[in-house]
Design brief:
- By secondary structure, the chain is of the alpha+beta class.
- The chain has one domain (2-188): Mago nashi protein.
- It contains five helices and seven strands.
- It has helices at 2-15, 47-51, 108-120, 169-182, 185-188, and strands at residues 63-68, 77-83, 87-94, 100-105, 129-130, 139-146, 149-156.
- The chain has a seven-stranded mixed beta sheet with strand order 4-3-2-1-6-7-5, covered by helices on one side.
- It starts with a helix and ends with a helix.
């Protein structure tokens, strides 16, 4: 029985299964909330090597991120980073058509639309996290660095069911706008 458990555990770890959220190790990064944190939120160590290739963000440069995390089921797990110059970096992790790193370019007008969407959502006034006391739901990290300010917000819950989501609708609308403007569907698939 032990080998089977270890195989399932290792498989769950590899795909970032939220079942590991109940067995969170000590030493969790300080910027992560302590409740309902999906395991997919943990970055593999290889990521550090990739980050060196990414553009360095000056204090006033715009950097926008959206990271969708695992659920109990086939929720797409990926991260998008959009730089002020329009460079997009996608990292597909699980339940997506394109796994691994992809890059794209969006126009300056699309970057401005993204910034405007953050302003419309009143992003800097949002709480740092919105969670519900239910397991196995998807989550999303959304962040922006703009004009020397930065903010990161964690939303855990179902955007399709108001009883399982206590975040303002403007936050999930913002997440969806990021996906739409960047055209993440090209990598995520159906």
């Amino acid at each position: 029985m032990k080998p089977i458990f270890m195989s399932v555990f290792c498989l769950a770890l590899a795909i970032g299964s939220p079942m590991l959220a109940v067995a969170t190790p000590a030493g969790r990064p300080a910027d992560r909330p302590t409740t309902d944190r999906p395991a997919a939120d943990v970055k593999p160590e290889v990521k550090a090597e990739v980050e060196a290739e990414e553009p360095a963000a000056a204090a006033n440069e715009t950097v926008i991120t959206l990271e969708r995390t695992a659920c109990f089921g086939p929720c797409p797990v990926y991260e998008l980073t959009v730089y002020g110059d329009g460079k997009v970096i996608y990292e597909g992790r699980a339940f997506v058509a394109a796994q691994g790193r992809r890059t794209a370019q969006i126009s300056p007008e699309q970057v401005q639309r993204l910034v405007a969407a953050f302003e419309t959502a009143n992003f800097f006034a949002l709480k740092d996290q919105y969670t519900v006391e239910v397991t196995d739901l998807p989550g999303a990290w959304t962040s922006i660095q703009l004009n020397g300010q930065s903010k990161r917000v964690w939303r855990y819950g179902s955007i399709d069911n108001p009883e399982l989501n206590n975040a303002p609708r403007s936050l999930s609308d913002l997440e969806n706008q990021i996906d739409q403007i960047v055209n993440s569907q090209q990598w995520i698939g159906n």
